[in-house]
Amino acid sequence: MSTREGNLEAPTRHPLDWKNPDFFNEEKLNHELERIFDICHGCRRCVSLCTAFPTLFDLVDESSTMEVDGVAKADYWKVVDECYLCDLCYMTKCPYVPPHPWNLDFPHTMLRAKAIKFKKGGATFRDKLLSSTDAMGKLASIPVVVQAVNASLKNKPIRKLVDSVLHIHPDRVLPEYDSAKFRSTAKPRSDFAVKAGERTPGKVAIYATCYVNYNEPGIGHDLLKLLAHNEIPAVLVEKEACCGMPKLELGDLDAVEKLKETNIPHLVKLARDGYAILTAVPSCTLMYKQELPLMFPHDADVQAVKEAMWDPFEYLMARNVDGLLKTDFKDPLGKVAYHVPCHQRVQNIGNKTRDALQLAGAKVTMVERCSGHDGTWGVKSEYFDKSMKIGKPVFRQMAEPQPDYVSSDCAIAARHILQGMGDSTAQKQHPITLLRIAYGLE
User: Fold this and answer.
1) Measured between alpha carbons, how far is residue 6 from residues 39, 104, 105 in Å?
2) pLDDT in tens, 320-353
3) Fold of 329-439
4) How far apart are CA 338 and CA 356, in angstroms?
């Protein structure tokens, strides 16, 4: 085995070989876990990223041999359960990822383990419920139901009852639902002339995402206002379902495939018609840019959608470079404490949101560190305290400048951060909303 310390080359990613029966062979998984854990034990660079690595290193240090061979195979699952697939270890820390010959892919090995666990019936009702974002959103946003749901989210006795049954922590601040769903109320304007730039398509399709559609439709409406102000014709994706990221994190790869079969036919038509497809939730963008293309490497439609998928600020700042973005900002934003979500960082697009906020005149304090919420992980009772612990440095750094606004491209991370900051006068606003405010748009 090579003893070369690390890579000089940029990380690459191998396709996820999940259709191979060996992928679900637990004995072969354990062999790979032992190999990877041994490399991680000898390196330990990722100890500060999340709780998966400290859990692993504690298991090793407390074993009879103080090596990975002294850790019981059954305890490997303790590490797997702590991983929430943020991908930061792969993209920002690990020196042994491909093309290094050690070929270490910690997140996708954890995903393989989660998929095996799911196949064996290891997912609880709670986990399946939390990952069914479309089903929950459709039910909870029914006009009469939504009032009861939102009231229950703030009712302590009900939250304690929910915790006792579903193990959703009663202290976790949860997003409310909105009966005025984005896709039902959006009025995109497609009447502008198409002005393509050297770097950007001149027309946009909006993939709403479950969160924007059911929880914070205002983010989607503000995105449409930004596009209209910049005279960019926009449409909604004709039909959409969940991107599949919650099911991926659960290890339910068959459900991911079913969602892909629903979404890709509608998305690929837009991609091949020259649209830039924008999603306002980084995890959804990453799903189409990375995870689905790695799961279905030979699907030409999936690859076409990958090339057409944009983070909103990636697109807007590319329009700015093309000389096609209006910079007639009217209202000052003041101080913005801005958090970069993990699933945006690993897209390797640079700090486009920060750049846009600065272009709009904001004084930005940027924090590049995991907030600790991580999808549904920080909602669960057994991980709530850990999620708050992981977020402590972020809470402190976001509070230090005494900002006017707390913001993150991941809306649930921003809510988690504001909760962790405690007594703060800062407003929580999505970066898209901040740009709309800066333009002076109503």
Assistant:
1) 12, 11, 14
2) 999 999 999 999 999 999 999 999 988 989 999 9
3) Rossmann fold (3.40.50)
4) 12
Q: Which residue has the tokens 């290891």?
A: 122
Q: Is 387:359 a contact under the CB 8 Å cutoff? A: no
- How far, in Å, are 154, 174, 216 from residue 177 at the CA level? 13, 10, 7
| Residue 1, pLDDT above cutoff 50 | no
Identity of the amino acid at 344: Q
Question: In angstroms, rounded to a whole number, what is the distance separating the alpha carbons of residues 309 and 279?
Answer: 8
Number of neighbours of residue 70 by Cβ within 10 angstroms: 13
φ and ψ of 236, to 5 deg: -90, 145
Relative orientation angle of helices 133-140 and 143-153, to the nearest 10 degrees = 110
pTM, to two decimals:
0.93
Mean pLDDT score across all residues of the chain: 93
Question: Could you identify the residue written with the tokens 């009772």?
Answer: 381
- The tokens describing 136, both together, are 């929950």
Tokens 């003893």 -> residue: 3
Q: What sign does the dihedral 246-252-255-259 (CA atoms) show? A: positive
